[in-house]
Amino acid sequence: MIEVLSLEFMRHALLAGLLASLCCGVMGTLVVVNRIVFISGGIAHAAYGGIGLAFFLGLSPLLGTVGFTLAAALAMAWISLAQKHRADAVIGVIWALGMALGVILLDLTPGYKVDLMSYLFGSLLTVPRTDLFLMAGLDAVVILFALAFYNQLLALSFDEPFARTRGVPVRRLYLALILLVALTVVLLIRVAGLILIIALLTIPPFIAEAWCRTLKGMMLLAAGLCALFTVLGLWLSYSLDLTSGPSIILVAGAGFFLSLATKRLGTRG
């Protein structure tokens, strides 16, 4: 591990993974307990439309993707609130159209062709310093959001009718949550990749949910598991010369099944 840390690109990759772990642990917990994993996946896939639009129009990839993804996230949030019985189907349509639009626009963009695989699996080993600052800023926003609205998020997540009777602005808080998920996806997709983002937003929080009794504890454990899976995945990637993103996902998957087995054995005991 000391040899790994002697390399600057590995230090950057490790720091990027830890920064991503913090926001994914907090936001992933809210995603899992509010049962919006499908919406989060839809947002992540729809972000491809923003990537294609940005390159086609010659805009900054970050700004173009942010605008498109936030608009898609708002559409999904509105549909999930207004037409819950049809939400999954419509979100699936937006999901597919976003990805298709992104690929087509990139095909139509003259000159340099963007490597979509880098957005699918990420490029943790080539993280620039500027992205580290953006990720640190995202972590600050996520933590402030969770601290400022913790009680309201707790009520929204576990008892929406009670939240309404207590005067919690459920609709606005839900929209804010969806938009923050979209922002998390946009700022992490180039570094972590679409597949790794979905994995970190779902696997560690799902494991943590089985072992924690409080929302706060679940957030902390999920963030810790994200960090653990990231460190072990990067070490495995470096040791066996494997792609970093899939290595982290494999480690997280092993942790998921180990948790299930341990929980089941504990229940039987």
Structure write-up:
The structure is a single chain. 85% of the residues lie in helices and 0% in strands. By secondary structure, it is an all-alpha fold. Helix 3 packs parallel to helix 5 and helix 4 packs antiparallel against helix 10. The model has no long low-confidence stretch (mean pLDDT 88).
Overall geometry: globular
Helix % is over 70%
- From the 3D structure, determine the CATH topology: ABC transporter involved in vitamin B12 uptake, BtuC
Strand residue percentage: under 5%
How do the helices and strands follow one another from N- to C-terminus? HHHHHHHHHHHHH
The helix count comes to 13
**Overall pLDDT level:** 88
Task: Give the number of domains.
Answer: 1
CATH class value:
Mainly Alpha
Q: How do the helices and strands line up, and which of them pair or pack?
A:
Layout: H1 2-5, H2 8-33, H3 37-57, H4 61-82, H5 87-108, H6 116-121, H7 129-148, H8 150-158, H9 160-165, H10 170-192, H11 194-211, H12 215-240, H13 244-268
Helix pairs in contact: 2-7, 2-10, 2-11, 2-12, 3-4, 3-5, 3-10, 3-11, 4-5, 4-10, 7-10, 10-11, 11-12, 11-13, 12-13
Please give a quick description of this structure.
The chain is mainly α. The protein has helices at residues 2-5, 8-33, 37-57, 61-82, 87-108, 116-121, 129-148, 150-158, 160-165, 170-192, 194-211, 215-240, 244-268.
